[in-house]
Amino acid sequence: MSGENRFYEALTGGGRKPFAVELDSPEGPDAEKFMAGAAQLQAGGADLITVADCPVARPRMDSSLMACKLRRELGMDAMPHMTCRDRNRNASQALLLGLYAEGVRNLLLVMGDPVPPEERQAVKGVYNFNSVDFIAFADRFGRERLPEPFRIYGALDLNARNFAPELERAKAKEAAGALGFFTQPVLTERALENLKLARRALKGRLAGGIIPVVSQRNGLFMDQNIPGISVDPRIIDLYEGADKERGEELALEVSAAAAGAIAPYVDGYYLMTPFSRTALMVRIMERIRQEGLT
C-alpha cells in the first residue's frame, strides 16, 4: 500500500494549516459507528485521524489496527498513538513492521496513562521504554530497516504547572527523532504562554490542541480529572444554565477563539472529539476555515 502522506506534506509545506482530529476507538466489538464518524470527519476536511492507545489505561479497539482499517477502507491518513505502557521492544518492533506494510506512516509515541490503582493487581505496565527512548528506537528502526522512515511526533503538555522540564523533554524528543508535537488543549492563558515558549524553543512542527467544552459539567470534569487539560474558570462559567443546543454553540465559539489565539504559533490543528460528536468537529473545522485561520 502506498505510503503517501498528505498530512505530513501539508504540515511541513507551509501553505496551509492541516487538521488532525482525534477519534476514540470503540469500547466494544462493533466499529461501524467509528468508521461512519471517521468518514464524516474526512468529508468535513480532516487531513488525519488520530486514534488514542487505550486512554486512561482502559481497553478499547487497538489504535494501530484501527489506523490500518482507516487507511484500507477510507484511504485517508491515520495516526495511531503508541504507548510505552503496554508493549516491550519485540512487540513494538513487530507492530511497526505491520503498520509500515499497511501504509501507516505517522506515529504519536507517548508514555501512556498509568494503570488505575484498582486494576494493578491484574494489569501490569510494561514500560520497556520511556517516551524519548521509544522515539529514538522507532526512528532508528525506520531509517535502518525500512524503505522510508516513519514521521514521528511527541506529545507536549502546555498545561504543565512547571513547564520548564516539559520543554526540556521536548528538546530531547526532537534530538531522538521527533519532527514535531501534538499539544494538549489551549484553554487557559498559561497554556497559551507556554505555547509561545515552545514555538521559540523548539525546531519541530506544532499541531495546537483544541478540545470543545460542551457543557459546564464537561468543563469542570476535564479541568479536575483529566491529566494534561486545564480549563479557564471563565470558560466554564459561560456554560452555566446552558442546554445541549446552547452548549454546542458555545463549544463552537470557544473552539474558534482558541484557534484564533494559537494560530500564529502553530503549523496545524489537533482537534479532540468529545463523546464521538463528529458533526460538531466538522462545524469547528468549517468555522476555522471561514475565519481564515488555515
Q: How does this model look, in words?
A:
The protein has helices at residues 6-13, 32-43, 63-74, 89-101, 131-145, 163-176, 189-201, 216-225, 233-238, 244-262, 278-290; strands at 19-22, 48-51, 77-83, 106-110, 151-156, 180-185, 205-210, 268-272. It is of the alpha/beta class and 294 residues long. The protein has a single domain (6-290), classed as Alpha-Beta Barrel (TIM Barrel). It has an 8-stranded parallel beta barrel with strand order 1-2-3-4-5-6-7-8, surrounded by 7 helices. α2 runs parallel beside α11 (278-290). The chain is globular and about 55 Å long.
As laid out across the biggest beta sheet, the strand order is 1-2-3-4-5-6-7-8
Largest sheet: 8 strands, parallel, barrel
| Spatial separation of the terminal alpha carbons | 30 Å
Rg, nearest Å = 18 Å
Give the mean pLDDT.
Answer: 95
Task: Give the low-pLDDT segments.
Answer: none
| 3D shape | globular
CATH top level is: Alpha Beta
- Structural class by sheet pairing and helices: alpha/beta
Return the string of H and E elements: HEHEHEHEHEHEHEHHHEH
What is the domain total for the residues?
Answer: 1
Fraction of residues in β-strands: 5-15%
Please bin the fraction of helical residues: 40-55%
